[in-house]
Amino acid sequence: MATYCISDIHGDYAKYNKMLNLISFGSDDTLYVIGDVVDRGSNSMAILKHMMKYPNIIPLIGNHEYMALQCLNILSQEITVESVDGMTDDILQGLSEWIGVGGQPTIDGFQRLSKEEQQDILDYLGEFELYEEVECGDKMYVLVHAGLQNFNPERTLWDYDLSEMIFTSPDYSEVYYPDKYLVTGHLPTWAISGNDNPEKIYRKYNHIAIDCGCGYGGKLATICLDDGKEYYV
Fold first, then answer.
1. Of 221, 63, 218, nearest to 144 (Cα)?
2. Is 5 helix (H, G, I), strand (E, B) or coil?
3. For a 10 Å CB count at each end of the chain, is N or C smaller?
4. Considering its fold, how many domains does the chain have in total?
5. Strands (E), the chain
6. 21: Cβ contacts below 8 Å, ≥ 6 apart
7. Does residue 54 belong to any structural domain of this protein?
8. What is the pLDDT along the chain (233 residues), one digit of tens a residue?
9. Residue 217's domain is classified under what CATH number?
10. 3 state DSSP class of 230
11. Given strand 230-232, what is the order of strands in its sheet?
12. For residues 63 and 191, what is the distance between their CA atoms, to the nearest angstrom?
């Protein structure tokens, strides 16, 4: 029985599947997927369909799921005069921005699904959690995709809105919680200022950053919260 965290798989089903085998993921384990399952890679739908089967895989929303959910809801609608007329400049801009950050492979995979499968995917994406607090042994962890924008130690987690948790990375040089570890993805570890080991999970100042750049051809990383062991594909 173990608790794991993974993030920023970005449509790479091969690495995702290898990682599950590497950690020997079983029915007694828990895997938190802290955002950005989709986009860039070509197999986002395969990953989502696999995750949906397992109640012990707990997904948190990332900025790419947020963008995908908004756009796929529109693209799944029947094309009519009314639906075309409803395509506002804001909608078209949002779709363009999503495609610009890697949304096209997700659109292609989604459109190959049946209507029933498409609705299942939309329903599942709509169930993603915003954050989780996890206790493992004598340690407490706060799991969130990007960070806690406008951080204040006096704020409770439910005081942060969605945009504050999925778009902006934390200040990795500052301790946010002296008694908790903040586990994040979103920003590849090679982009963290002062990181001496850019291909590995970043662990400093009670931060654990686990996006090792899978979406850019880098490694897919996972950490076991029980013992701190790191895994890489």
1. 63
2. strand
3. N
4. 1
5. 3-6, 30-34, 57-60, 131-136, 139-144, 181-184, 202-204, 207-209, 221-224, 230-232
6. none
7. yes
8. 999 999 999 999 999 999 999 999 999 999 999 999 999 999 999 999 999 999 999 999 999 999 999 999 988 875 444 554 555 667 778 788 999 999 999 999 999 999 999 999 999 999 999 999 999 989 999 999 999 999 999 999 999 999 999 999 999 999 999 999 999 999 999 999 989 999 999 999 999 999 999 999 999 999 999 999 999 99
9. 3.60.21.10
10. strand
11. 57-60, 30-34, 3-6, 221-224, 230-232
12. 18
Of residues 21, 23, 16, 9, the one with CA closest to residue 225: 23
pTM: 0.94
Kindly list the distances between the CA atom of residue 82 and the CA atoms of 78, 96, 173, in Å, as whole numbers in the listed order.
10, 21, 51
Is residue 115 assigned to a domain? no
199 in Cβ contact with 212 (< 8 Å): yes
Q: Give the HSE-up count for residue 43: Cα atoms under 13 Å, Cβ half-sphere.
A: 11
Alpha-carbon distance of 153 to 178, in angstroms, equals 10
Domain extent at residue 193 = 3-64+126-232
Residue type at position 97: E
Q: Does residue 133 fall inside a structural domain? A: yes
Q: Say if 69 falls within a structural domain.
A: no
Estimate to the nearest angstrom the gap between the alpha carbon of 81 and the chain centroid. Answer: 35
Rg (CA), the chain: 18
CA nearest neighbour of 147 among 222, 230, 205: 205
Closest CA to 73 of 85, 87, 54: 87
Structural tokens at position 26: 């079983």
Alpha-carbon distance of 76 to 71, in angstroms, equals: 9
